[in-house]
Amino acid sequence: MPKLPMGDIGPCEVEWGYGESDAILLSPFLGTVSLKMADTLKDVQEEGFGDAAVDAIISGTTMELDIPMTRSTIDQLEAVLLGVLNASVLTLTGMVGCEMYANARALVIKPVCNNVPSTVHTDWIHLYKTYPFRKWELQFDRSNQRVFLVGFKIFISQESATYGDFGTIGMT
């Protein structure tokens, strides 16, 4: 029976800064870790056909990753919430005008079976240039567990070895 390299169902572990000495594991999660890729299309039209497209042009591709982090350490939160940690206090600062690509890092998604991440590199998803952005809303009530939803912008690589690529499904 055919199956996806990373398996058909199941949780994952996410490592941001893959291959670097200060890489950080972002698990555990509560909810769906969601990797999205979308092409933007522009219709080509002719007056005689009205609004009907006679062709279309792919005008770009975007990728994003959503990670619902729960029970996170303060170090994990400092890394992805782009905060400033002083002792055990995390200050959340406003941001504007900051470039992301220069600080983007590799990210790897590893499928998990029985709470053990896969060690088979061909099962992994490798994204070359990623950077987090904040999109969370904490809920305080008696029935919902708090989750920090963190997004990752995935950039197309501008590095010579991977130029024009987002990443790979499977690694050698």
Task: Describe this protein with a few key phrases.
172 residues, mainly beta, 9-stranded antiparallel sheet, two-stranded antiparallel ribbon, 1 helix, 4% helix
Question: What is the secondary structure topology, with strand pairs?
Answer:
Layout (H helix, E strand, L loop, with lengths): L11 E5 L7 E2 L8 E12 L7 E17 L4 H7 L3 E3 L2 E3 L13 E9 L2 E2 L7 E10 L13 E8 L11 E3 L3
Antiparallel strand pairs: 1-2, 1-7, 3-4, 4-10, 5-6, 7-8, 7-9, 9-10, 9-11
Briefly characterize the structure.
This protein has 172 residues and is mainly beta. Helices cover 4% and strands 43% of the residues. The chain has one helix and eleven strands, in the order ββββαβββββββ.
What would you note in describing this structure?
The chain has one helix and eleven strands; from the N terminus they run ββββαβββββββ. It is mainly beta and 172 residues long. The protein has one domain. Strands 1, 2, 3, 4, 7, 8, 9, 10 and 11 form a nine-stranded antiparallel β-sheet that branches. A two-stranded antiparallel ribbon has the order 5-6.
